[in-house]
Predict the structure.
Amino acid sequence: MKQVTPATLVAGPVRLVPLTLDHVPGLQAAAADGELWHLRFTSVPAPDETLAYVEAALAGQAAGHRLPFAVLDASTGDVLGSTSYHDIVPAVERVEIGYTWYAQRVQRSAVNTTAKLLLLTHAFEVLGAKLVGWRTDNFNHASQRAIERLGAKRDGVLRHHALRRDGTVRDTVMYSLTVGEWPEVKAHLNWQLSRPRA
């Protein structure tokens, strides 16, 4: 697998750009749309935590195990949210997609499907990944449904796996998609994005 380095990915309504400290105000505004930090099972930063959130993401990038993106509206440049490659393991050609969240106004729109199509295409067709994974909180049913709609397979549950922001310990639901499954998933995601919407 090639080294995972910063890249700009563009399609349809979104542009994924390398996350920087300059995105902090935009991320604060995106998170404020729905006050997303109140959801106990997400990683969305509260306004006063956003700078530290971005600094932690950039530290992960410097350490080589994370590549964070700001998700922008392709036409206006407004920050819509954030997503990352993480748990990058070149030795087994594996990368995960996570730390994903969007302003409430663009949830259940083409934004997430387009961003995932960009990230998956880049992972499989440019980086040479053999597997892309996802993980989510056992109580984050919306996230689980979104991952399953992408065509990922549920691998199982890691019990008592990670701390939530409220101090409780979550079970983590794991998903994955292999390079062999990618062509069919890619065709389905492109169909989802091109079909007429009511």
User: Anything to note?
Assistant: The chain has a mean pLDDT of 94. Residues 41 and 140 are 6 Å apart (CA to CA).
